[in-house]
Design brief:
By secondary structure, this protein is an alpha+beta fold. The protein is built from five helices and eleven strands, in the order E-E-E-H-E-E-H-E-H-E-E-H-E-E-H-E. Helix content is about 30%, strand content about 35%.
Length: about 200
């Protein structure tokens, strides 16, 4: 059973290629975490491949609240963005952008040919990707007296927490990153201690 805080994405950018009747379809897949990142990448590819006929794309982000978009960039409606998005879905991925740049070869492919070309180019890019498991995280803030530091560090290490902020004094403060599915368990670990205050963000 899939954990509630687990998802699949790609580790790094990768490329693919499909050719049909002289047209070339260059596919570029990227891990992305915001629509702003996606827009920047798309704009950079438009500039780099400014002589191409079309720059079609699709992206999907998030796990709980999905954000997705498809764009045919002048191709007949539904023949480019949707087939690209279909491959993101088929591979079970999120936080992924795929842009397919088309150089027109002089011969029309028809709607069926276009759907197949954009699908195949996106599929080829993802077939070269290193697919990785990633997690959703929460933040936890801890306030405590210095005498509890060693015990707190031991518990944090057992949950593989990453320390984001820290302040050690008579009264200490830690902000850590923890997998979402472990956050409540972490809070329960410290609940018996009245002078250890933890809040989940």
């Amino acid at each position: 059973m899939k954990n509630e805080d687990t998802y699949l994405t790609i580790a790094s950018p990768c490329e693919g290629l499909f050719k049909d009747k002289g047209s070339r379809f260059l596919a570029f897949a990227f891990p992305v975490y915001s629509e702003e990142d996606a827009r920047t990448i798309i704009e950079n590819l438009r500039k780099k491949y400014h002589d191409a006929r079309h720059h079609c794309y699709a992206y999907k982000m998030g796990v709980d609240r999905l954000i997705y978009r498809t764009n045919d960039d002048g191709e007949p409606s539904g023949t480019a963005g949707k087939p690209i998005y279909g491959q993101i879905q088929s591979f079970g991925l999120t936080n992924v952008l795929i842009v397919v740049v088309r150089y027109f070869g002089g011969k029309l492919l028809g709607t069926g040919g276009l759907v197949n070309a954009y699908k195949s180019a996106a599929e080829d890019a993802l077939s070269h990707a290193r697919i990785v498991k990633d997690y959703l995280y929460k933040s936890a803030e801890l306030k405590f007296e210095y005498k509890h530091l060693s015990e707190i560090n031991r518990v944090l290490q057992s949950f593989n927490c990453e320390i984001i902020e820290q302040l050690y004094d008579e009264h200490c403060y830690l902000k850590v990153k923890i997998r979402r599915s472990f956050a409540t368990l972490l809070a329960e670990k410290f609940s018996p201690f009245k002078d250890i205050h933890i809040s989940l963000i």
